[in-house]
Amino acid sequence: MNRKEELVKEVVELIKQGGIVAFTGAGISVESGIPPFRGAKGLWTKYNPEEYAYIGTFLRNPEKVWMMLREIYQCFKEATPNPAHLVLADLENKGYLEAVITQNIDNLHQKAGNKKVIELHGTGESLTCLDCGKRYKFFEEFVNMFPYPKCEKCGKALKPEIVFFGEPLPEEALTQAFELVKRCKVLIVIGTSGVVYPAAYLPYEAKRSGAKIIEVNPEESAYTESITDYFFKERAGKFFEEFKRFLEG
User: Which of 57, 78, 200, 206 could form a disulfide with 187 if both were Cys (CB 3.0 to 4.6 A apart)?
Assistant: First the structure.
């Protein structure tokens, strides 16, 4: 058994003790076909986030923002959960994992089977009218409505219930997330760079409360040298395929 396998085995034993929470970012969904927002091939190289992902722009020019949103929804349509999502769902089903806290809006954790998912940045699964407050479950037809989907009640532009720049995170979700990390025994950090606040505070809060930090990332993050106890420099799907063998072994 090599050193990495020894570490994976240690992590499996830790996880089997329960009290686990997962904290996920865009990196967990890359192998599902959803490009990250940041980085060389990220969405922000094509769409300036301060322009296209800002709430002020949506209010002034929803047609412009919906150009970007259509591309995002096309990625969501084609994406399926990868081994990382599926293993997290299995861990919850086995009673080891209490919840997933995610910065993602792709709904892949729910598709994989996770039931307790705290969505810090909202969800692409529903739309809302900022004028009259009417909510709609997302249907594919909305993407093909030009210049943008409109509220059937008042005719105003519909906005996905995702958090745009310039909007606060959902207070209830943020409160739940901090409560979870304060009491967890182990926090598994997957596919996040640790630079988007206030969500990025969560692993530090877990560490302060005595949790072990397991990190799975293809590159080092803000956490790696400061608070991480176990670092696996790999893509999430590839790592959790191997992890599953040890979990079931």
Answer: 206
- CA–CA distance, 73 with 79 (Å, rounded to integer): 10
Exposed / middle / buried, residue 117 (Cβ in 10 Å: 0-12, 13-18, 19+): buried
Pair (202, 94) in one structural domain: yes
Cα–Cα distance, 124 to 76 (Å, whole number): 9
Euclidean distance between CA atoms 92 and 144, whole angstroms: 36
Pick the closest to residue 197 from 222, 161, 229 (CA basis). 222
Is residue 85 part of the annotated active site? The answer reads no
pLDDT tens for each residue of 114-160: 999 999 999 999 999 999 999 999 988 999 899 999 999 999 999 99
Residue 154, annotated as binding a ligand: yes
- For residues 12 and 103, state if they share a domain: yes
Q: Is 75 annotated as a binding residue?
A: no
